[in-house]
Amino acid sequence: RLKSVVHQTNCVCMFQTLPDSAISTYAASLKDKGALVPALYKVIRENYSDLLEPVCHQLFEFYRSGEPQLQRFTLQFLPELLWSLLSVSAARDPHTSGCIEALLLGIYNLEIVDKDGQSKVLSFTVPSLSKPSVYHEPSAIGSMALTEGALANHGLSRVVYSGPHLQRETFTAQNRFEVLTFLLLCYNAALSYMTSTSLQSLCQLSSRVCICGYPRQQMRRYKGISTRLTVTSEFLVQLITGIHYALCNGEVELGSKALDDVLYRAQLELFPEALLVGNAIKSSLHSAALKSNNKEGARSIQVEITPTSSRISRNAVTSLSIRGHRWKRHGEMHTPEKSNLRCSRKAVGDQLAETREEFSHTLYPKARRLSVFSL
Q1: Cellular location of this protein (predicted)?
Q2: Which residues lie below 8 Å from residue 63, measured CB to CB, with a gap of 6+?
Q3: How many CB atoms lie within 10 A of CB 108?
């Protein structure tokens, strides 16, 4: 088995001898090497393997090449790399994770700058409740009164900015989860390209990080490290984002277990952001049928779209509603005197109409016939 791992690793190292024109072809051919990915997972999971350092170095060369397929090839191992780093850090044996730290810091430092080497500022648009998005339909929310404040904010989009991020040369207790959260953000941006093995690794990472050192670890009979790992709310939110995608793309069992474990940890830590996002996803899954057999087809996030219907709130105040309310009120407030006056006015109107018709027939019989014929 070790010879097979060495052989697959040597195939990866052939990338260094390729010309620039052949990089795209080489990147596309990696998918056909079925034994390569399991061999690399085996090397990463063995922290004391002699092949770990050359593999991490080669994965960084893949990412630094700028070829999107090679970058996604490296990102698929990110959940396993994160767990290796966190487990070694919890065991207080940093000497065995030096190459993994270098790889993760290298990816982070590459992603926080643009092509010119300037710090990037990422922007995210928060959906407006008045406009439909992939997560909601305005008609499903219910009627909302058109108050002055709602009209003032109608159609306005809120933009949230992230960055610029500082370059990091080493991991510390203060910046560890800042870097790891940003790396998970990069991973989630490429979720549609991740394999089933990578999604399974993400779910396993989420469960292990959240239950280690807590009573649930004994219930799950997980025999890994028993040290509690420090997490942040932002890190859990990024984990939930990936779990949501895994749930909708075939990993129902692992994804459901991972989501429960993350919510379990968020409740213990009292993280409102993680609880809000996690419970919202969990509630939406009860009313939606998960695509449990969608491991090979097109990947997507399943969202229930409600039919759009035009509804006007009872509390909405418009010029039309005011006019209709006024005439309705006047119609209800009638007296016998007003009713008699209304009947007499109707009779006079009918009589005038008959007189006008007879007069026009007498003076203009030909014109009247033409007009009837034209009709």
Answers
A1: Cell membrane; Cytoplasm, Cytosol
A2: 70, 71, 74, 75, 106, 107, 110
A3: 19
